[in-house]
């Protein structure tokens, strides 16, 4: 007992003693902030648990955490102002605010992940991945046609944009000079800012004029629209990766009499291939979730369509959109399908991102040899 | 003199491989310019009929194209501005947290977590906004109109569904958060360490150090990041199309059920059923959106370029 009391008394004894250490006198204990935070969270959690019990509604964890952090900001500011003075108090307040900002950003992320999984699981079954929506009214059916369409259209878009984007990046890094280089760099930046729906309208305008069909819908148009969005991303990331290749490697290759194009193909590209693949993966992940351009040029349908050049083609994001917006009589079935589609989409994007990171880990050139 | 006439410059051997390869790179580089020109040309070509269309061709009671597009332009800018207003302070906070507050080892992982937000497809955000966010904020909106109804922005009557432009702006803010955060974070990390250490050595607290060294250095970066976020918010389609219950009005009230919709959402909602001149009108509105985002993005690039010259680092 006495052992636990003595250390508590020691600081007070020191601060009131004749030789006070001015540097440490006005300072909150080391873990005070942490304890205050936990205390505040405990208080708000208790408050909301009681509130939930009293009103019979569910426990509102988001509000509890959020208000807990706000309460922490106030308490720590007052405490610090009393003990440490205004400057330090302001510093602590800003620390609390900045951490709150981070917490705020986590709330939607957790909420989106939770609702998508919780609502998507009921229809995340074999039927969902093995059937299309043809002749389905109400429950049942699946998104096979949409998944197929997404794979075809995104694959085609990658097939267009990867060569174009990569060659452009090579031009910018290895060959480009003068006005053309500046122009391309500038317009790649401009292209990054094209709204996705405008890309869709462009593909529509292009094919409507060329085919003369004012109501044209086809999968290839969707691929063109996605390419417009994807090319600048591929160019940017590949350019950064090519710039990282040390010039000594190129010079060594030239010194051995290797032609420039072979130097690029055999030395520069293999050195940077990991980064380039990562960039391409992330670009694909970026466009695979695009809805607006596909809604416009690829349209929607309930049947399988393997032909990119003819007829409407369903894609996963558009599937989610149409299932939600055009709910039939059996509302729940449509909503369940929409959420299952959303879950599939998020899983695909997550998978692409993970593969990208693994590729960059595994295949990046070993340094420090 | 007696030296041999200057030896003819040794010409590099022309190899077909080199020729083919360099031509291929130039062609694909130029293809980007051609594409962008094509985007502009085809949009203009398809949009032209809309400017002289009959008054009956427009939905609602618009007489000509400009009356039709006016509320849409207003809605687009208003929603994006609201989103920006919410996203920028939070994004700066997150960027500071990751660059200057979080423990070093955690910082990168925390950065990934925020980047995850950027990986969520917009249609999923739309679903989330309509099924989770809108019902969750509706009671809050009701009390907001009760207490602050005198303030024009929060004027009643409140929407019963929560599907208002403020909800849209919140979702848009969440969507542009990762972009602004990532760019500001990069800029904050580039602050010269000597500036920071000098501030700390003079006895500044961490916040004073940030105020003195980091924020002045990062200000142009924050501005251009915000502009890029604004560009993204202007062009975002699905969230607005799904969450908002649209009307062709110009109204600053953010909690009512009558909300101005945006150009992109209007296109997405009406395009599948549009025909003849209706298609041209929608494409013309798309052209306007293209011009607006182009202007915003170019302004952002201009600020970035200017920053290079007057960077505090050199």
UniProtKB/TrEMBL annotation, chain A:
Q: Where in the cell is it found?
A: Cell membrane
Q: Supply one GO CC term from the record.
A: plasma membrane
GO MF, any single term? phosphate transmembrane transporter activity
Which controlled-vocabulary keywords does the entry list?
Cell membrane, Membrane, Phosphate transport, Transmembrane, Transmembrane helix, Transport
UniProt cross-references to PROSITE patterns, sorted A to Z: ABC_TM1 (PS50928)
CDD domains named in the record: TM_PBP2
**Know the name of this protein?**
Phosphate transport system permease protein PstA
- Native organism: Agromyces mediolanus
TrEMBL record, chain B:
Tell me the domain of life: Bacteria
One GO biological process term is:
phosphate ion transport
What are the TM regions of this chain, as residue ranges? 20-45, 65-98, 110-134, 154-180, 237-257, 277-300
Decide whether keyword Transmembrane is in the record: yes
Q: How does it sit in the membrane?
A: Multi-pass membrane protein
Function, please? Part of the binding-protein-dependent transport system for phosphate; probably responsible for the translocation of the substrate across the membrane.
This protein is called Phosphate transport system permease protein
| Species the sequence originates in | Agromyces mediolanus
Gene that encodes the chain: pstC
């Amino acid at each position: 007992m006495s052992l636990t009391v003595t250390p508590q008394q020691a600081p007070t004894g020191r601060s009131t003693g004749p030789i006070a250490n001015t540097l440490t006198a006005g300072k909150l204990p080391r873990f005070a902030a942490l304890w205050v935070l936990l205390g505040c969270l405990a208080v708000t959690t208790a408050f909301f648990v009681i509130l939930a019990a009293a009103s019979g509604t569910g426990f509102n964890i988001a509000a509890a955490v959020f208000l807990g952090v706000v309460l922490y900001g106030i308490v720590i500011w007052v405490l610090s102002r009393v003990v440490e003075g205004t400057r330090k108090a302001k510093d602590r307040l800003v620390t609390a605010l900045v951490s709150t900002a981070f917490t705020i950003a986590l709330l939607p992320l957790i909420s989106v992940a939770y609702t998508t999984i919780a609502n998507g699981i009921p229809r995340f079954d074999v039927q969902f991945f093995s059937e299309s929506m043809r002749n389905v009214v109400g429950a049942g059916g699946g998104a096979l046609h949409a998944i197929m369409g997404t794979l075809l259209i995104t694959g085609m878009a990658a097939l267009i944009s990867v060569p174009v984007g990569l060659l452009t990046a090579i031009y910018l890094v290895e060959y480009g000079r003068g006005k053309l280089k500046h122009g391309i760099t500038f317009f790649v930046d401009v292209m990054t800012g094209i709204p996705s729906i405008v890309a869709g309208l462009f593909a529509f305008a292009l094919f409507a004029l060329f085919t003369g069909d004012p109501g044209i819908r086809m999968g290839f148009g969707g691929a063109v629209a996605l390419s417009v969005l994807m090319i600048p991303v591929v160019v940017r990331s590949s350019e950064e990766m090519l710039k990282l290749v040390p010039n000594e490697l190129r010079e060594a290759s030239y010194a051995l009499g290797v032609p420039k194009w072979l130097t690029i193909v055999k030395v520069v590209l293999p050195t940077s291939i990991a980064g380039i693949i990562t960039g391409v993966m992330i670009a694909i992940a970026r466009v695979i979730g695009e809805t607006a351009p596909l809604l416009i040029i690829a349209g929607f349908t309930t049947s399988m369509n393997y032909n990119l050049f003819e007829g409407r083609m369903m894609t996963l994001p558009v599937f989610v959109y149409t299932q939600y917006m055009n709910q039939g009589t059996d509302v729940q079935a449509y909503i369940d399908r929409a959420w299952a589609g959303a879950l599939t989409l998020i899983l695909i994007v997550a998978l692409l991102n993970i593969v990208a990171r693994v590729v960059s880990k595994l295949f990046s050139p070993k340094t420090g040899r | 003199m007696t030296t041999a006439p200057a030896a003819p410059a040794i010409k590099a051997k022309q190899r077909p491989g080199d020729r083919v390869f360099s031509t291929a790179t130039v062609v694909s580089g130029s293809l980007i310019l051609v594409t962008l020109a094509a985007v502009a040309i085809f949009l203009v070509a398809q949009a032209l009929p809309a400017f002289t269309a009959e008054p009956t061709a427009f939905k609602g009671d618009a007489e000509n194209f400009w009356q039709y597009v006016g509320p849409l332009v207003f809605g687009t800018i208003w929603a994006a501005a609201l989103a920006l207003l919410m996203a920028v302070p939070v994004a700066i906070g997150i960027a500071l947290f990751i660059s200057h507050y979080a423990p070093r080892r955690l910082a990168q992982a925390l950065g990934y977590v925020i980047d995850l937000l950027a990986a969520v497809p917009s249609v999923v955000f739309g679903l989330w906004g309509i099924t989770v966010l809108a019902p969750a904020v509706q009671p809050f909106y009701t009390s907001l109109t009760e207490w602050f109804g005198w303030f024009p922005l929060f004027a009643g009557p409140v929407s019963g569904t929560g599907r208002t432009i403020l909800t849209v702006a919140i979702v848009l803010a969440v969507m542009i958060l990762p972009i602004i955060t990532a760019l500001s974070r990069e800029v904050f990390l580039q602050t010269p360490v000597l500036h920071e250490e000098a501030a700390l050595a003079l006895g500044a607290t961490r916040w004073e150090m940030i105020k003195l060294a980091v924020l002045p250095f990062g200000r142009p970066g924050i501005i251009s990041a915000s502009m890029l976020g604004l560009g993204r918010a202007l062009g975002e389609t699905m969230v607005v199309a799904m969450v908002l219950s649209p009307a062709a009005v110009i109204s600053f009230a953010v909690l009512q059920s009558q909300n101005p919709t945006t150009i992109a959402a209007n296109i997405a909602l009406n395009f599948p059923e549009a025909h003849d001149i209706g298609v041209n009108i929608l494409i013309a509105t798309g052209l306007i959106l293209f011009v607006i985002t182009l202007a915003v993005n170019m302004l952002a690039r201009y600020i970035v370029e200017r920053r290079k010259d007057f960077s505090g680092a050199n």
